[in-house]
Design brief:
This protein is of the alpha/beta class and 486 residues long. The chain has nine helices and 21 strands. It is globular and about 75 Å long.
């Protein structure tokens, strides 16, 4: 339950919703099965009653903006229903025998659950159908994952304690079976206000790790004055904190190298939003530990910009949306958003081009395989003739503050793109997606691609800029003609 008011808007990703209009009313509850299920109450109305006094955990019994599910128990035993650490708002849960039936269990704030999320347990009877109600304190709405499992606690891997700098930190770990000797390791960092359980369950990393044969760890940030988890990248509103996240993540990586036998030369880190900004910070300060970095939808605060001295320049894959209303594409040097001053995304890319000494640019416009998502992807691949470092920048034109492939843009899967980039770092060179002059992605360079150049023709118009000079002009026309396949 919230006992304070936060004026800060949390930078959480948009979440794909189920068709919740059908289960807004108890009489139209939809079936849920054991395991994890996405849900959204963003358009839910108030349908059920307030909770009885014995459900008051100290903050009243209000319960609104609710949706309904039915659950069939296929065995007798304890059933755990949870939004713990997997919803982006203050949830409440209840279970009934039916729409006009008896309340069996309820919960407001689950023990050790962040963000005022919930967890309740009740005794299920084989063959019985139960009615689950998911809503919010004081009518709050949001999105998340509801899990239903047998047992005494929430599903998934448990947090593992790790002591560093006088604090007990935590991480979750996924180690697939039948790994090769010295497998790779990827650390995955959550965004501001998020948590490691969300990253473990909802971004595809565990499944990809099992498929590809690498170890993946999900560390947790510490909590700030609003009880939100964060990575200490020196946001303007975190001046009172001095958390050694650099040392924690580097020490955790070395610990896993020592205890699990993962490969120090194939140890990588990626993250979303605040986690992406932590990746940039590690690229500046902990490049001796990590072999590559994958910041997704993040920026570099000016405080890091002026104090970035990597010991080893490492390959980077990064992504940003041009219509992101949290991490502004044009930057925010005046700190209107409250995070702190930061440069534009193009300037940030140019910063790393210089830092990694990768002046050679090859530009590819990726296939628009999902036209209804309102965005397209341009990939700029920077390299050098003198070394094998790479900087790959995915610009999601029309994209927002989303992890591509999960929410927002659906033309690429950011999880797989990041892993494929990491996987190729110790190979001769990353596999390139295709002919850069093939602007429409149909496999040939012909009049259709020439039409793109003519449509975007102009100084300062980079819509079909193939040589990276910021203009669509005769130089780009020459590239089209040289690659012409008819």
């Amino acid at each position: 339950m919230r006992n304070l008011i936060c004026l800060l808007v949390l930078a959480l990703p948009a979440v794909p919703t189920l068709a919740q209009n059908g289960n807004d009313d108890c009489s139209n509850a939809i079936e849920i099965v054991f395991g994890d299920t996405w849900f959204s109450t963003t358009s839910a109305t108030d349908d059920g009653p307030e909770l009885p006094p014995d459900c008051n955990e100290g903050f009243g019994t209000g319960f609104g903006s609710d949706i309904w599910f039915t659950l069939l128990a296929d065995q007798s035993g304890g059933i755990v229903v949870s939004t713990c650490d997997t919803a982006d708002y203050d949830t409440r849960l209840a279970v009934y025998t039916g729409c006009d039936g008896v309340l069996i269990a309820c919960n407001d704030d689950g023990e050790d659950c962040s963000g005022f999320t919930s967890r309740m347990t009740f005794d299920g009877v084989e063959g019985e159908t139960y009615l689950l109600r998911v809503g919010g304190f004081d009518g709050e709405r949001g999105t998340g994952t509801i899990s239903v499992e047998y047992g005494d606690g929430p599903p998934g891997s448990s947090n593992i304690d790790f002591d560093h700098d006088g604090l007990t930190r935590q991480y979750r770990l996924h180690v697939p079976e039948d790994l090769s000797e010295s497998p790779p390791l990827v650390l995955v960092l959550h965004g501001y206000g998020g948590n490691n359980n969300d990253m473990a369950n909802n971004y595809g990393w565990r499944e990809l790790a099992t498929e590809e044969g690498f170890v993946v760890a999900f560390p947790n940030g510490t909590r700030d004055q609003w009880n939100s988890r964060f990575w200490d990248v020196d946001y303007a509103f975190h001046g009172q904190f001095d958390i050694d996240d650099d040392g924690f993540l580097s020490s955790l990586a070395v610990h896993l190298q020592d205890t699990l036998g993962v490969d120090p030369e194939r140890t990588f880190v990626t993250g979303f939003s605040n986690g992406a900004e932590m990746c940039f910070q590690l690229a500046c300060r902990e490049s001796a530990t990590f072999r590559g970095f994958g910041p997704v939808i993040g920026m570099m605060l000016d405080t890091l910009w002026v104090d970035c001295e990597p010991e080893f320049p490492r390959p980077i894959i990064t992504m940003n949306g041009t219509l992101d209303d949290v991490t502004l594409f044009d930057g925010d040097m005046g700190n209107t958003g409250g995070w702190g001053a930061y440069h534009s995304i193009p300037d940030m890319v140019a910063f790393w081009v210089d830092e990694l000494e990768t002046p050679e640019l090859e530009r590819v416009f990726l296939d628009d395989i999902n036209p209804v998502d309102g965005s397209t992807v341009r990939l700029d691949m920077y390299s050098s003739l003198d070394h094998d470092r790479r900087l790959w920048y995915y610009q999601v034109d029309g994209g927002g503050h989303d992890w591509p492939g999960r929410w927002g843009n659906m033309d690429i899967d950011a999880t797989r793109e990041v892993w494929d980039f990491f996987k190729a770092i110790d190979a001769d060179e990353p596999e390139e997606p295709g002919e850069p002059a093939d602007l429409n992605g149909d496999g040939v360079v012909n009049a259709a691609d020439l039409g793109y150049v003519l449509a975007f023709w102009g100084i300062g118009n980079a819509g079909a800029d193939l040589n990276g000079d910021g203009n669509t002009d005769s130089a780009d026309l020459g590239i089209i003609l040289a690659a012409w396949t008819g």
